[in-house]
Write a structure and sequence with these properties.
about 220 residues; Arc Repressor Mutant, subunit A; alpha/beta
Length: about 220
């Protein structure tokens, strides 16, 4: 069982996060704290596996809390669940070793996915003295939070895979949404949504071609990274 400490200054959000976390198999919230100072006091005499923390907190904010954890050599992983969107904050906590960063408001499925990925990592490292490269790939950014496994709300995996596979098979060729629609017999509006999603996760590149008449053409292409 993975022991969790939640650090959140809003009692309502704290209780909501606690309920969310305990719906995921393998996790148990053993303590909660309203700020970083309270959390550090608990951690001086208790061990946990995972800390779920906010950035914006009184007395000791989340970044200072994580720095102090590291200074005291407290061995616990940290996932931030916060409204902080500043890139400096995100960059700093990731450099300090945070294993994930969720921006409020977030979908419950995103938190569930993060915890399930963490659980796989935890089990793999705890149960084995030596692991293979492919195992490491599963717990690093290549496999740990694999974006292909998290489909945007409203999109269907089977349709996404059809369009993704079509673009991969036609590597390096630009297509309009109309052309993909004709090839796959899927409505143009639907195809456009999925192509835009694949662009948003950097699987496709988009080029806008401006003609002399009418609207510009949106051209999509898959390239090997």
């Amino acid at each position: 069982m993975i022991k969790v400490l939640i650090v959140e200054d809003d009692p309502m959000v704290l209780n909501l996060n606690k309920r969310y976390i305990e719906t995921v198999d393998g996790f148990k919230v053993v303590e909660t704290a309203l700020n970083g100072k309270e959390a550090l006091r608990f951690l001086t005499s208790h061990s946990v596996d995972l800390v779920i923390a906010d950035i914006y907190m009184p007395h000791l904010d989340g970044i200072s809390f994580l720095k102090e954890m590291r200074r005291r050599m407290i061995k616990a992983d940290v996932i931030f669940v916060t409204a902080a969107k500043e890139t400096d904050s995100i960059d700093e906590v990731l450099m300090l070793g945070a294993v994930d960063y969720l921006i409020k408001p977030f979908e419950y499925e995103r938190l569930k996915s993060s915890l399930e990925s963490y659980y796989k990592r935890y089990q793999l490292l705890k149960r084995n003295d030596v692991i293979k490269q492919e195992d490491i790939d599963q717990i690093t950014k290549r496999g740990y939070y694999n974006i292909e496994n998290t489909v945007q709300k409203g999109l269907h995996k089977k349709t996404l895979e059809r369009i993704r596979n079509f673009m991969k098979k036609n590597e390096g060729i630009y297509f309009t949404s109309e052309e993909v629609s004709e090839k796959l017999h899927v409505s143009r509006v639907t195809v456009r949504r999925y192509l835009e999603y694949l662009v948003s996760i950097s699987e496709l590149t988009l080029e806008i071609e401006y003609g002399s008449i009418g609207r510009p053409s949106h051209l999509y292409k898959h390239e090997i990274k």
